[in-house]
Design a protein that fits this description.
The complex is a heterohexamer, with two copies of chain A, two copies of chain B and two copies of chain C. Chain A is α+β, with helices and mostly antiparallel strands. Helices cover 15% and strands 39% of the residues of chain A. Chain A has a five-stranded antiparallel beta sheet with strand order 3-2-1-4-5, with no helix packed on it. In chain B, 39% of the residues lie in helices and 17% in strands. In chain B, the strands form four sheets. In chain B, strands 2-1-7-8-9 form a five-stranded parallel beta sheet, sandwiched between helices. In chain B, strands 4-3-5-6 form a four-stranded parallel beta sheet, sandwiched between helices. Chain B has a two-stranded antiparallel sheet with strand order 10-13. The chains are: A alpha+beta, B alpha/beta, C alpha+beta. Bound molecules: iron/sulfur cluster (2 copies) and magnesium ion (10 copies). Chains B, E: Residues 235-262 form a coiled coil.
Chain lengths: 79, 381, 353, 353, 381, 79
């Protein structure tokens, strides 16, 4: 549900912006977000930016994926 | 595709799968509902279940705004589209949704109505500008994600003085639906259905934030993990849910921190509050009437409210008798329990809403479940 | 008797205005205006003795081997797009269906349905593109037909082409010949044509540098057959894309097909456009690609042959034929899971959810 | 492996509603809906092994003799009319163009361009009519194509058929073979089809009992060729009527043609309708008539042969080929004068003056 | 076809031809103008000239309402048709008539205008009824024959209260055109053109009667014979003209007594008088401005007058410079005198009005004259 | 000019009538003529009857056509 995809903002003109997703460009509206600048990644849904992507958080999450969990099964901490 | 491909990485998937396998207690069963079709889609498209232990069960929730729109409202839209000089604009998703007697907006269009598929609410505005002698109605659907764009369109129409534009509003609210499911007797009282935790919406949450889920975790003592829609996000959320359950915690956790904050997008929330107000109650296909679960256009914007402009009368149209969507959406039944699954009801000719969207439980099972079962059958033989 | 057809024609007929003129009902009415259009546009562009004879049919010697015949209608919008237009598409498409039987295409017919008011300049451009495509492919457009429908009852131009060709004896290519163990190959990147066309639909409003892959594949096919006469199935994944034709082959051969997402050649912008729209590149149309199925022992040689041809540079072995009474097409995802690649239900529509 | 294609199909596909259903975009989208339409409608109606193979092309043995190929688009309105419909017309018309080369028609292809919203019941009726016409004519529709265009971009249904056939060696029939002295024959009454169609155009508002003459002429042609192998020209006077094809023949053979109005078989109501509208029956379309040109010594035998066939009962010798560097078609009027029968300028439009 | 076929009988034609041959004085030349295209058509279609002696010459007159409509009025109609929400209805004859820059109503239609061909003025009324949101304009053309049906349509529109129907009136009057030709200096003063008599209109005369022609025969001393449009009628009229000339008479005679009386159809005349009034002057293509030669809608019916409703401004657009139609229509020149006859100007791409209708002098000569001349050339060689 | 053709009136309903011309039927208006009855022949132009045909006059005219003229050339009565 709520198909949306992160894309990089290339140009901004008031509430209108051009985003680029791997060579695909489209015009979107920035009416729902604040403080967006060229180079930012925004999540695009039905032609609107919903929110900016936080690069630091993205990196943190990815790092988390790569961690082999220390936790054992059955809710008990491993010895 | 940055922020996309990294979250689909097969090598990382193996690590998370290993973590899950290690975390999942083989002596118990885990039942999680992914509320959103977006998660359902990711699970199907990337074959996520293949990477999960057998005792982790995913239940598809009602999180597809198309699937939950009741037949009466679709019928309203069909009648609107058939009104002379009306152009009905809507998102592609709506076109195939079945109403009664095998009708749909697509069939209504084929029969001659002027129905236009739009990609954005702004396209509907543009069409209104280009067709001053027509009434352009935007059939608005969607959860909290899709509501702010509708609000923007109405505000722009007002600013432009577009007298021939209106919105048939069907925007619904996610938290109410989750409450409703959790409050259903099968789950709450009878305990007939196991529901150990929720994967919370990704993009809805960018707007509303993680805070609204805190009520559930407290009130119903179910863990909630908000997750992105990429397959690694889903797997990580499953891991986090297992960990909470193992630790007997019931908290709201946020896996999708790269886009979701606790308070959400306040600007979008303000725009919505400016244009919309709560409905006392709204019908959800499958769930029935759910209190305070939808929005309507404020009277200050009544000029843009198609319900008022066209005096749209509420229609109560029951679902097809054979259709089990209601029970399926609440997790009470399985598509294979429906007598007409795969025969009368197929993705090409859907009868119930769960067969329409590729995220619908029945469509997903039609596509992927039959395959999984046939695989196991073949293997067994 | 000093007789000169040309003199009679030219002295009494004013030239057609191919700059600003438009198709009128009379261009399909059977009178002088139609004859003039046929002679000055079609006959001169397609330039061959059979067409110039202006009979209602073409006459030629039957070829050796078995004959094949195929027809397709072309109704594309927009008519002109990066990489081609409806004209070359109408030649390539039908020619490819002929080639997919392992046949050498010989002759084409072309039926035009024109909408009143269609700019003659566009028609001329389209016909020139057909002529160029036919010439490049070494085939002749030997007979044709022109109808004009009233404004509002057509969409500018529809073209239906029919081709005939001949298959050398000993070559047996058909969609019911796939057997478990056979390898599945594609000749190049998927979805380029469909995404190019979608990008031009104003209501979808996205832009891309991708071009349609429209191309005539018979030369590639000839090389492939020369290298691997044992090729069993050839098909061009047009409408409905790769997914659809794999399902068709699975059903017709009563087998399953397992493909590997890792091996699928798909350009980044095609994937990106699909993400925007909620589409799946496996279902997007191609106009210059083919799928081949051959015995496992021939697969590498076939791949090598394909890659040596300009139209097969990005060819890949994408999977294999398996036993499956349910005739499923399944895919090992790049993520590590496995999913079914089902028939398309209805057309793909852009989605919000 | 207990495999059953039929079971797979039937268990997962709801039958198409041919009573109240309408054509949707998905019927041309390349997915399951399209496959279902093709299988349950076209394949079952046209019923032959080549079509059932569901390949994108048909494969057959080349015939003996030379081959001919012809194509025509059918865009008629209304779709159903007394005496026929667009379906049988699309079979007869192309088959006749094949027969006009003296050929035996063998195979047809059929390309459909359907408009979204077109009633499936009408489609079924049209397809049944095509199937019946093909069967009656002893030919097979071996390959086809279906496209669906958006509502407002078509006119219900357009059909383009292409036919191939074979001409026995020794038969040389072409429009450039008429020579002075040759006789000109028609196989029956003129203008029946065109007037039938005009009478159904609401804005012309007249009524008649006339029926379209749509018919397959290859059997008549076979008899004619058997009796008079020296036949030089055969042509069916469709769009533009008798006048147009006589002008075409005159120009292609570089001769004049003189006809006698007294001999022209024209029904009274056809003449009457033309008087109302300001039309000339010589320019009105036929769909089951032919014009033949043969050496003078064979004319009577040819006439006799034609009259002995059900489709040639009203045949007549209507004139002869003459020398004329200007390639005029002229007519001795029933009144006693002489006039030129010129090319049609534009389409015939109803006149008030 | 009763009252038709008898009048096309070849055997009778031979008798009349014999009578003409006997009557025509071999020592003189007879020049007759058939005013009406209907007669021109009959002469061409049946090959009547083949049955006339060489010294009887037929001159085609301006009697085709399509050919005489000046370019300015066609341009007006084209502009009207291009007005948004206008449906322009007219008779088939009008569609191909060339205006400037190679345009015509047919080309305007091809370029997107909503132009409908009607068979009757009542069809235009019906279209107006069916399209209440459109302005339906009937482009009315024709001589006295076609004027009464337009009057009926306007009266009916008034009775029905059809607010979206109007008429762009271009009805012209036959007697004025004949006067104008007879008064032209080439004929009257200079005597450069021989014009010994007139064949008078058939169907126009059913309405106006034979009386209006009496003025010409008296004032200009030219015999007039009103004749039916069948070929025997034309031949008989030629015979009657020869007989008058031989007898030095100049009278109005009526060959078409089966349908024409001296006073004509009074009911039709009254309807026309009710709705229309004389214009002071009107431009005829080829003839220029001819006083009192056309009708306009009375101010009491101004609501139905498209000229008023759409404020149609008079446009003076000259004919193509090369075109000799003006001189040809007056009998002063011959199509072969036109430099672009048969090259730039053909029936498929007419430049001048005489090439448009198959009754036009140039079209008739293109079709039949070329043939006749080629025949005589062939014979001579 | 003014294409019109005689047709037989078959049915009359107020100002509307059906005429028949050799099997071709069409609806026309009688608004311009008076005293028309079924069986009469009228001259039809753009869907209107312009005038009735007078059968006696038609017969007279035809008879005239068939008469070999007694008149000689040159305008002098023959001797
Ligand atoms: S298969 Fe169809 S009818 Fe049955 S529950 Fe699912 S959607 Fe409803
Ligand atoms: S030939 Fe054409 S341009 Fe010349 S006078 Fe005739 S109509 Fe005018
Ligand atoms: Mg094909
Ligand atoms: Mg194809
Ligand atoms: Mg043709
Ligand atoms: Mg169109
Ligand atoms: Mg193909
Ligand atoms: Mg043909
Ligand atoms: Mg034909
Ligand atoms: Mg033909
Ligand atoms: Mg095809
Ligand atoms: Mg249409």
């Amino acid at each position: 549900m709520c198909l949306a995809i992160p894309a990089r903002v290339e140009q901004i003109n008031g509430d209108d912006a051009i985003v680029n997703l791997s060579g695909i460009r489209r015009e979107i509206s920035l009416a729902l977000v604040e403080n967006v600048e060229p180079g930012d990644y925004v999540i695009v849904h039905v032609g609107y930016a919903l929110e900016k992507i936080d690069p630091a958080e993205a990196a943190r999450t990815l790092a988390l994926f790569a961690e082999l969990s220390a936790q054992d099964s059955a809710g008990e901490p491993s010895p | 595709m940055k922020y996309v491909d990294e979250f689909r990485d097969g090598a990382l998937a193996k690590i998370i799968a290993a973590n899950i396998a290690r975390a999942a207690d083989p002596r118990r069963q885990y039942h999680f509902m992914e509320f959103c079709g977006g998660h359902t889609h990711a699970i199907s498209r990337y074959g996520v279940t293949d990477l999960l232990p057998d005792n982790v069960h995913m239940i598809h929730g009602p999180g597809c705004p198309v699937c939950v729109l009741p037949i009466g409202r679709i019928e309203n839209a069909i009648q609107l589209a058939q009104t002379p000089d009306v152009i009905l604009c809507t998102y592609g998703d709506m076109l195939r949704v079945p109403a009664s007697h095998g009708m749909s907006l697509l069939k209504t269009k084929a029969a001659g109505a002027d129905i236009r598929m739009v990609y954005s609410s702004l396209d509907a505005l543009r069409i209104a500008g280009e067709n001053p002698h027509k009434e352009v109605v935007f059939l608005a659907i969607g959860f909290e994600t899709t509501t702010p764009p509708t609000a923007v369109a109405i505000l722009q129409a007002q600013a432009l003085g577009l007298a021939n534009f209106s919105v048939f509003c069907n925007h619904v609210l996610t938290p109410s639906a989750i409450s409703h499911i959790l409050q259903s007797p099968e789950i709450r009282t009878l305990g007939r259905i196991r529901l150990d935790g929720f994967i919370g919406p990704a993009h809805v949450s960018t707007i509303i934030g993680s805070q609204p889920y805190e009520y559930f975790s407290e009130e119903f003592q179910k863990p909630v993990v908000i997750a992105g829609f990429e397959p690694l996000d889903v797997m990580q959320a499953i891991l986090m849910l297992i960990q909470q359950i193992n630790a007997r915690r019931a908290e709201v956790e946020n896996e999708f921190t790269r886009a979701v904050s606790r308070h959400g997008n306040r600007k979008a929330q303000q725009l919505v509050a400016q244009v919309f107000e709560l409905r006392r109650t709204f019908e959800w296909r499958g769930l029935g009437w759910v209190p305070y679960s939808a929005l309507q256009i404020k009277t200050t914007f009544a000029d843009f409210d198609a319900e008022k402009r066209f005096k749209i009368a509420p229609l109560a149209i029951p679902d097809n008798k054979a259709c089990e969507c209601g029970a399926i959406l609440r997790g009470v039944k399985h598509p294979r329990d429906c007598k007409i699954f795969g025969t009368a009801c197929t993705p090409d000719n859907p009868i119930g809403s769960c067969m329409v969207s590729s995220e619908g439980a029945c469509a997903a099972y039609y596509r992927y479940g039959r395959f999984t079962e046939s695989r196991s059958t073949t293997t067994q033989q | 008797m000093t007789f000169n057809k040309q003199a009679i024609r030219s002295s009494y007929v004013r030239p057609i205005d191919f700059k600003r003129g438009r198709v009128e009902m009379s261009h399909g009415g059977g009178g002088r205006a139609m004859t003039q259009l046929i002679e000055t546009l079609f006959v001169s562009a397609f330039d061959n003795a059979m067409l110039s004879a202006l009979n209602d049919q073409a006459c030629f010697s039957p070829p050796t081997g078995r004959m094949v015949m195929s027809t397709d209608g072309y109704v594309i919008s927009p008519l002109f797009f990066p990489g081609g237009d409806i004209g070359c598409l109408a030649v390539h498409g039908t020619l490819n269906d002929i080639a997919m039987a392992g046949a050498k295409p010989l002759y084409l017919s072309a039926g035009f349905i024109l909408e009143e008011g269609f700019p003659l300049a566009d028609l001329k451009r389209i016909v020139a593109s057909m002529a160029a495509a036919a010439q490049a492919a070494g085939i002749q457009i030997v007979t044709g037909d022109t109808k004009v429908v009233e404004r509002g009852k057509g969409d500018g131009i529809f073209i239906t082409t029919t081709g005939v060709g001949s298959v050398p004896d000993g070559i047996e290519i058909a969609a019911d010949r796939a057997r478990p163990g056979d390898r599945v190959l594609v000749s190049g990147t998927l979805g380029d044509h469909g995404i190019t066309i979608l990008s031009l639909r104003e209501n979808l409003g996205f832009h891309t540098e991708i071009e349609s892959d429209t191309a005539a594949l018979h030369d590639l096919v000839a090389n492939m057959i020369a290298a691997v006469p044992a090729i069993k199935v050839l098909r061009d994944p047009t409408r409905g894309g790769l997914a659809t034709i794999l399902n068709e082959i699975a059903l017709q051969s009563a087998v399953g097909i397992a493909i590997d997402e890792h091996q699928l050649p798909i350009r980044e912008p095609v994937r990106a456009a699909c993400e925007f729209l909620g589409f799946d590149p496996l279902y997007i149309a191609n106009e210059g690609k083919l799928v081949a199925i051959c015995p496992p022992e021939d697969a590498d040689r076939l791949l090598e042959t394909m890659r040596a041809h300009p139209l097969g540079q990005a060819a890949a072995i994408i999977g294999e034929v398996i036993e499956d009474p349910q005739c499923f097409v399944q895919m090992e995802t790049a993520f590590g899971g496995r999913r079914i690649v089902d028939w398309l239900s209805g057309e793909q529509l852009p989605r919000i959810c």
